Amino acid sequence: MRRNMHPTGRSRPSGFLLAIACCLLHLVFAHDCLCEEPRFIDCSLLVAPEYPATWPSAPFPRFQMVHERTIGPDSPYNIDVLLIDGNTGTQLDVPPHSVARPELNRPKSGALGLAYTDKIEAWQFGGEACVVDVRDLLDQAPKGVSPLVTREHVERFEEQHRRLQFGDVVLFRSDYSDKYYRPFPEGRRYVADVLDRKSPGYPDPDPECMEFLATRGVMTLGTDSASMGPLPDLAEPTHYAGLKHGMIWTEGATNLGTLPPIGSFYCLLGPKHERGPYSEGRAFAIAGGDLPRRLIESCKKKRVVDLSPTLSPTLPITSPGVDTGNHRQAYLKIDFLYSPDLDMWHHTHLMDSMAGTHLVPPSFALPPEGEKPAYAPEIRGWREEYEKAYGPLGTSDVTTEQVPLDWTCGRVHIIDVRSLIGSTSKKTWPASPEITPAYIQTQELENGDLQPGDIVLFDTGHLDKHLRPAPDDSGVWSDPLQGKTEGWPAPGPDAIDYLKDRGIRCVATDAPDLGGVDRKRALMTYWALGSHEMVGVEFLHNVGSIPSDRAAYFLFAAVKIRDCHGGPGRAIVLY
To answer: What's the number of domains the chain is made of?
Structure first.
């Protein structure tokens, strides 16, 4: 090939200089990105009764929340019960949604028919967000019919940005949920009017698009429509085309327009239901700074620790209480629709909002602003004692959906409190060894100072040792609460005060809760958390699997349920 030459015989420098200029601009941009503070972007729909959060066809159950107890004479806590199905709000689909169990020996049977929400590998939940813009398809179809996202749309993305690869999370952005997820009656446009052929369907990929993505090694997808299945007749073919390759995906994402086309970290975390083919979840992204790149790399290399125990009716995942009538709602699986192709029942769950791994928002133990609850006489006495020692009891309207995502995500700082086990006298039981400021300071001297924004995780070892199915299930709650064994180590209000002074927003534990088994001390701990606008994450396990690397990053998000005083979710650590 002939080259452009100067009269001197040298190559023209323009192309070379242009390349150098582009490289310099890239370096400047990269430097700016690395210096930028990470930004958390919520990609989840709000779950509330007046929204189209659940699939509207019979017999799918509608979402319900019961405020079973409110702060007052009967309880010092706000306690909620949920009736929630895995097809609620922003949700996770895993292979058994369409892949039959291997022992059935059916055309769609395979090993992935056992990859339920409690079995799927947690590294697959996250990766680099690759936002495929398909807004040109919105409403561009007949009523009841979905416009199809095709291979060509994905190739258009690749021409504009880069080739897709393993570790990417492909997100189809049509802005459908942004536009149509509204309170009723307008909310009928989201799904019901499409099913009734009154409105055009939501854009979704066809089976060929799924097969193409599989050739790229993509294992995780998302859509901001109500389902990954195009209507009226390609829903199951599209599902199976992706799920048979082991893909998982987000349905009902939203706010994808705030993500850059590439470069941000995207994640969907949802409760770990036993044998669940799908799960309600919480989707979010992190953009800016170096953090997204590090988290993406961790997912690519499968460096993840799952900290959430499985939710199962056979496990003691909710408190039985001490006195008769003070138990929390047991976790129940309720079958409602049989799928003959999969030999599987679709099911919903009736559960306490603090079943398994969950959030403790400030409003759990604090009354709303302006309210003066009529506590029982015993609790009034405890309040007077608390306020004398720690100042006025706060108020809070901060329920689960209002807790910022960056409060429950951050560098994990593990404090090993197992040396406190056995430090109480049997005569004092029921009692929990108290984690004090002095103990935390000793741990800081040995393992490094706490930094603002750290997620403090108390390693008690309690659930690792005692979480067993019935009939060997009394060691988690019953025996400690009844004083038959020592309670799990728990922070007192003084420790919470100290952590607040150190800039800590979130305190986590691998014990059943942060309060311990002494009712009075537990309530004071929760009062201190709420009064300091701090949150808790409770009921973790497997903490010993977290590497000692101080860069390990804790990710937790609760399902975005409006007015909820708990919030089921899942916690993982990327390292």
So the answer is: 2
Q: How far is CA 478 from the centre of its chain?
A: 28
In angstroms, the CA 250 to CA 227 distance is 9
DSSP per-residue letters across 211-235? HHHHHTT--EEEESSS-SS-TTTTH
- Summarize the confidence of residues 515-535 as an average pLDDT: 98
Task: Show the tokens assigned to 502.
Answer: 């150190």
Using one digit for the tens of pLDDT, what is the confidence trace for 359-408?
999 999 999 999 999 999 999 999 999 999 999 999 999 999 999 999 99
Q: CA-to-CA distance for 400 and 562, rounded, in angstroms?
A: 7
Rounded to an integer, what distance in angstroms lies between the CA atom of residue 448 and that of residue 463?
A: 26
Domain with 253, as residue range(s), is 42-48+89-302
Residue type, 417: V
Are residue 397 and residue 543 in the same domain, yes or no? yes
Q: Is the pTM of this model over 0.90?
A: yes
Alpha-carbon span 100 to 47, nearest angstrom: 30
Question: Residue 10 domain-assigned?
Answer: no
Whichever domain contains 241, its CATH number is: 3.50.30.50
Torsion angle (degrees, nearest 10) of CA 427, 540, 91, 129 = 150
Model pLDDT, residue 35: 57
User: Per-residue pLDDT for 13 more than 60?
Assistant: no
Judge whether 212 lies within some domain. Answer: yes
Determine the residue type at 225: S
| Largest Cα span, the chain | 99
Could you tell me if 518 and 492 are in contact, meaning their C-beta atoms sit under 8 angstroms apart? Answer: no
Indicate whether 299 pLDDT > 80. yes
The helix (H) or strand (E) run that includes residue 82 is strand 79-85
- Indicate whether 186 belongs to any domain: yes
For 127-166, the DSSP string reads EEEEEEE-GGGTT-S-BT-PPEE-HHHHHHHHHHS----T
User: What is the model's pLDDT at position 551?
Assistant: 87
pLDDT in tens, 188-217: 999 999 999 999 999 999 999 999 999 999
Q: Residue 393: how many CB atoms within 10 A of its CB?
A: 18
* Helix-helix angle 207-215:235-243, to 10 degrees: 10
CB 384 within 8 A of CB 393: no
Summarize the confidence of residues 132-138 as an average pLDDT. 98
CB of 111 within 8 A of CB of 104? no
**Domain limit, last residue, from 268, 302, 336:** 302
- Establish how many alpha carbons lie within 13 A of residue 237's alpha carbon, considering only the half-sphere containing its beta carbon: 13
Strand pairing class (278-280; 265-269):
unpaired
Residue 264 sits in the same domain as residue 117: yes
**pLDDT-based confidence at residue 323 (cuts at 50, 70, 90):** confident
Domain end marker among 302, 320, 337: 302
Domain identity same for 492 and 567: yes
Residue 550: pLDDT band (50, 70, 90) is confident
In a domain, 415, yes or no: yes
N- to C-terminal Cα distance for the chain?
A: 49
